[in-house]
Amino acid sequence: MRIDIPENKKLVHETTISIRWGDMDSYRHINNTVYFRYMEQARIEWITSLGFSSTAEKEAMLMVNGFCNFYKQASYPGNLSVKTYVGSIGNSSVDIYNTMELLPINHDDDQLLCAAGGATMVWVDLERNKSMPWPEVVLKVLR
Question: Going by CATH, does the domain composed of 10-142 fall within 1.10.150.530?
Answer without folding.
Answer: no
